[in-house]
Amino acid sequence: LPSSAEKIWFNGKLIPFADAKVHVLSHAIHYGSSVFEGVRAYDTPDKGTCIFRLDDHTRRLFDSAKIYRMTIPYTHEQLNQAQKDVVVENGFKSAYLRPAAFYGEIGLGLAVPFNTETDVMVAAMEWGAYLGEEALEKGVDAGVSSWNRLAANTMPTGAKAGGNYLSSQLISMEARRHGYGEGIALDIHGYVSEGAGENLFVIRDGVVTTTPITAAILPGLTRDTIIKLLKDMGYTVQEQNIPRESLYLADEVLMCGTAAEVTPVRSVDGIPVGSGTRGPITKQVQDAFFGLFNGTTEDKHNWLTPVK
Ligand code: PMP
User: What is the ipTM of this complex?
Assistant: First the structure.
């Protein structure tokens, strides 16, 4: 379980953990009207503690808010600084960060008046491997969910919004109830979409495929990182619809996300993926990914931002 911090950044100030409270009538509690990010900071040998893809996460937070016409009363720069500050002020060397913008106690009317400002918070916590340390090496057992991801033009999966995570909760709770480490959702057309909180890659005969953004996914920053790392290593990555059976016939499947990092999938619906262990390309990508933080992969895309 995450271990929390002493201070939380809330509406422009770092305040004690116990004081970072909202009212029970907060709009976001009743209607899911929040947008958020999950971000990681890593302890690097050369640049100290660095936030991974800070600008891209902050940009996505503003993008999610834009989709919902939310007004975040801070600038991109201020929220970058807030994320650095919570890490520094809490004395974390590495951390999981949770920025969120949400409607507080603004009344229970559904249609939020134009220009209503959100509340904004950024918390930091220590949080290890989301799907378990062992899964990073051995892989997770995943199951295809009976719940589909959201249909296009119902709720935008391109926004990282609180309400979307009811779908993710159904998928991950069902998976755990069936004894799987994580669930994989199909989109409403039956193509592979994503895990409850992770994007997916499928590898067969050295060809790497990931789902297109039209398959009801959140366009993950780890997904984008892996595409770029694989290209740097000389692989081609195709973005195209993945039928369910491709999960069974793959040599390798991997899940990725800020929390899950890069995790191999060793079986789907009880069918072993390839040899049922972490595959060679997955290992190569993992090494390249974690190498960004231990200094063995050059940060040529400028993805690391020191917290001070
Ligand atoms: N899909 C969903 C539904 C997620 O919640 C996440 C985690 N934010 C991802 C994919 C992966 O996105 P990222 O790599 O940006 O963390």
Answer: 0.99
